[in-house]
Amino acid sequence: MSIPSEQQHSRALYTLNPTGRFSDRADDYRRFRPSYPAPAIDAILAGLGRPETLRAADIGAGTGISSRLLADRGVRVHAVEPNRAMREAADKHPRVTLVDGTAEETGLEPQAFDLVLAAQAFHWFRPEESLREFHRILRPNGRLAVMWNERDLTDPLTAVYSDIISRASNRAPEEKWHIRPEELYISQLFSTAWELTFVYEQSLNAEGLVGRAISASYVPNEGDARAAVERDLRAAHQRFAGPDGTVHLLYRTILYLSQPIHP
């Protein structure tokens, strides 16, 4: 079977130091990365039972943005993140346990989780190995959720923002922010995924717009290139800001849901 181009792209991304590349951006990531819409979290949890009875593994959790959204609903969350700087930057939550592990080797117990979530992270994983690991730790009636925020280029400000950071990154391959998880669709371990789409808006002042860009690992963070990014983004902010001094980046939140298959 030939490998679809999306799979090739995903495997290429894994060679770009997915574990360490955010170490110098952890605080910006915590402060300026977008969250996810409440209806997407509703869909992830729908039908699994009362949230306070659920255990979830948030894989590639970063600074815990999605972990806290689940925990705020009452879910007990193990936030698996291999990058120490990202774990240390995470805001603490009483229902979130930070775990030093990878998607391929979480270190979590087998068939102990009702939900496995990968938010803005699946493209950094070795897909076949990570899917085997997700299958191992999920309960037979559990659920796998893979989610991305994709910038909505039909919005003028979001399109200008995207062009600025694309040019600044020399159109780096990892700047392609959303990839359909083809490996999930062909996996023998999971049922055919169903896809849901939601709308999300992130409001930012000038500092936030710059910070949002710098939180991306492919955007220059020093020297003349960093200064040029900030200059262009501040000009964009001045052009698009409303009376309250904020601009709004628009996203399409893409959610894929699937279930483990057992003989």
Could you explain how this protein is built, in words?
The protein is of the alpha/beta class and 263 residues long. It has a domain at 5-149 and 177-199 and 251-258: Vaccinia Virus protein VP39 (Rossmann fold, 3-Layer(aba) Sandwich). Helices cover 36% and strands 22% of the residues. It has ten helices and seven strands. It has a seven-stranded mixed beta sheet, with helices on both faces. Helix 5 (84-89) links the parallel strand 2 (76-80) and strand 3. Residues 1-15 have low confidence and may be disordered.
Overall shape: it is elongated
Sheet having the most strands: 7 strands, mixed
Output the radius of gyration.
18 Å
* CATH homologous superfamily identity of the domain at 5-149 and 177-199 and 251-258: Vaccinia Virus protein VP39
Helix fraction, binned, reads 25-40%
Q: Could you please say which CATH topology of the domain at 5-149 and 177-199 and 251-258 applies here? A: Rossmann fold
- Per CATH, the architecture of the domain at 5-149 and 177-199 and 251-258 is 3-Layer(aba) Sandwich
For the biggest β-sheet, the strand order reads 3-2-1-4-5-7-6
Task: Please write the CATH class name of the domain at 5-149 and 177-199 and 251-258.
Answer: Alpha Beta
